[in-house]
Amino acid sequence: MINKRTRSFAALLAASALILSSACSSGNNNENGGNSTSAPVDSNTPSESSTPAANIDPLGKYDPPIEVSVVGTTGSNVLFAEGESIDDNIMTKKYLEILGIQFKNEWVSDASQSLEKLNLAINTNNIPDISKVDLNQLSRMINQDQVADLTEAYETYASPLLRKSMEYGGGTGFAPAKKDGKIYGMPVPNDYYENVAIMYIRKDWLEKLGLQPPKTIDELYEVAKAFSERDPDGNGKADTYGIALDNALGMAFDGVSSAYKAYRATWVKDDSGQLVYGSIQPEMKEALAKLQDLYAAKAIDQEFGAKDWGKTADDVGAGKGGIYFGAFWQPLYPLSTTMSHTPDSDWNAYPIPVSADGSLMPKRPNNVFSWMVASKDMEHPEALIKSMNLWAEMWIEGGQYNDLFYKDIQGSPQYAGKEIHQYAKPYFFDDPGKNMVIGGQFKEAAAKDDGSLVTHPDGVWKWNAYKKNEPNGWAYYKYLLESEGVLAQYGDSFVHESYLGAPTETMTKRQASLNKLELETFTKIIMGKADISEFDKFASDWKSLGGDDITKEVNAWASAQQ
Amino acid sequence: MKINKKDLTFFHLLVAPGVLVLLLFSYLPMFGIVIAFQNFNPSKGFIFSEWVGFEHVRFLFELPDTMGTIRNTIEISLMKIVAGLVVPVVFALFLNEARIMWFKRTVQSLVYLPHFLSWVILGGILVDVLSINGGAFNQALQSVGIPPIFFFGDEFWFRIMIVVSDVWKEFGFSTIVYLAALTGINPALYEAAAIDGATRWKRTLYITIPGILPVIVLMSTLSLGNVLNAGFDQIFNLYNPMVISSTDIIDTYIYRMGLIQAQYGLATAIGLIKSVIGFVLIVISYRLASRYANYRIF
């Protein structure tokens, strides 16, 4: 919430990770629109509807070709092959060739400015045919009657592969995009476990100090303390710390607080089935007290309050922090950067600490943070679904264009290392279950030392990159084998975000100041600048400053779903 | 002197582009202020959006942060104005006593230089220099036995740092103004005073300071109009959750509310309040300036 640049930076870096996650940034900013698998899917929508006339082809070509306007985003990781550009490249050519859709960038902006520019476009009612928007923008555009109803287009044209991706885990990504039973936006899913915390620890530091990987909070306390006191990098200076925490209280906070069954900025079900806000529950007080202890023992970075996500990542890369709580893909960034600084370093992935009763109950925020919408004035809104169909056929295992994408395009020397999937039109989306599948194949392949067991097209080249010791090879191996292994170990025991709707009226007006109050109070408590009793005052302030109204609205939504 | 009609047309043409730019970028956008009284809906436009009267203003004062940001803004900018007045005057007086010309010129340029750096860059530098974990400043403190100060985590020190760094960055400009005023003092006064046996200190006290007093009064009254501008660039690039309650200012508040949360009505309302107060302050400062420093625009 504080630092706009940070968020964009984080988003940029995250995007550069090959699995295209906006992990940390979205995790921190997408606090109230989460979804959960437990939600019922509207029965009158998607899948089971009757397939109309057989001549409707999900990949039917427009003849003559149509033009569809979008907006483009550039960033330092968006690289083009010789002679290509954001307006004209191999992907735009393929879409024109196969679907007869010519994508045209209405404007192109740097990733750090796209949020503000798109807000401007929405507010001047000057939107392109198709745009990718966040939760707030989506709900504004629906309420302002700016976007097209996609219900029919989706039911008619969505291919089975596209449906599989859109409806993975219950299709909860559709929830905020619906109004009166109609779909106004297509979810842009990330990996299903996108924002689930995993504990990464410097293996070389553990070995050097003769420590065991921690399983409980108390063991974590000892290891983190040792990392800050016993000079694990051996340079004779007290310049290392245990737990890297960022000032948006990201995954390190979740990793520790989950052990107390406390879930910040998440709507959870209480014993009576009501939805309650995780940040104000009594469990959170215990978690904060422990974090205060950890900070006082110098087990947490003493300067975390002044460090945003990017700065924390830099620190970890520079070998200052030894315990990093992050998403499954983070061996790609920042963990792989530690090795360029300290060549003999190594990280291992572990589950987060267990709670007092020995159970593991991490939080799983939603995996959809953006939606693709079509302008109300667009002539062919089904072109959005068709383009998504084509991308599904290229990217998702079993698609008829898998070979075209993975072999002919991504596999050719011309496009090597260009992260060509970022040019997917109109916008990239992932197969939420993909990494778990590849993870399983990696496990088999590693156990039997047989690379042929990796058959997923997106896994094959990653396995080869690992075998050939290519850049990122280490990271692919770590995240697909170890991180996915940890996720598999978590199994089904997650606390899901239980509020799936669009921001409520009071949320729109007051959530920002409530979030600010929360962040400020929690930061002060952790740093010992405020006594733990401040928590009680925060909880009552939160309620009186609009939280009670929000709770009512959220529960009204929940009862309307039943 | 008589000016004929043809000449006037030429002058009007010269001024036209400036007037046009002013109309286009300063006056035309003023109509957007109506958003402050609407539930603005872009697909309906300015005219057909729902009118809500002073609802946004009322709601603003219901929000817990609004009064705090106004208070912070005034406190921080007053600190900046006072420091920004004293430092350049004292510095200009010292520099004026320097007799070596190249030294004076060089120093003058050097202190003006930081003015050209952006806060994005300075922000990054300050975080590193003032870090408690190996930052140069705190290492220096520790080497003389003073415990390190966490500038970015302590509300008191953060404000001090904000004011000092702002003065350091900007005082070069005012120094030049005061130096110019100093050169305007008639040297005969100094000579006469020296003959009468006045010491350097006495000469400063009775000739130099009264000589530049009108400029000091002018600069301070004019800065009154800036009381609600506490420096967006600087604070936006430096603040963090630990110090936000004591450093969040109106402009950062508007930025978050308008550009991030897209609550245009609310953001416009608070911007309008700021403009109204700023307008009153400018009128007052202009009156004061014209009374005490004989400063007139018209």
TrEMBL record, chain A:
Annotated region (Disordered) at 28-59
Write out the biased-composition intervals (Low complexity).
28-38
Q: Which InterPro entries does UniProt cross-reference here?
A: Bact_solute-bd_prot1
Q: Where is the signal peptide?
A: 1-25
Comp. bias (Polar residues): 39-53
At the top level, the lineage of the source is Bacteria
Keyword Repressor found: no
The answer to keyword Nucleus applying to this record is: no
Which UniProt key words apply to this protein? Signal
Q: What name goes with this protein?
A: ABC transporter substrate-binding protein
* Native source species: Paenibacillus agaridevorans
Automatic annotation (TrEMBL), chain B:
A GO cellular component entry from the record: plasma membrane
Q: Gene3D superfamilies given for it?
A: MetI-like
Pfam families named in the record: BPD_transp_1 (PF00528)
Q: TM segments?
A: 12-37, 76-95, 116-137, 171-193, 205-228, 264-289
Main subcellular location: membrane
- Domain ABC transmembrane type-1 span(s) in chain numbering: 70-285
Q: What does the record say about its membrane topology?
A: Multi-pass membrane protein
Keyword tags: Cell membrane, Membrane, Transmembrane, Transmembrane helix, Transport
Name its cellular compartments.
Answer: Cell membrane
Which GO terms of type biological process are on file? transmembrane transport
What InterPro entries would the database entry show? MetI-like (IPR000515), MetI-like_sf (IPR035906), UgpAE/MalFG_permease (IPR050809)
**PROSITE patterns named in the record:** ABC_TM1
Q: Which family does it belong to?
A: Belongs to the binding-protein-dependent transport system permease family.
* PANTHER family assigned to the protein according to its UniProt record, in alphabetical order: BLL4140 PROTEIN
In Swiss-Prot or TrEMBL terms, this protein is called: ABC transmembrane type-1 domain-containing protein
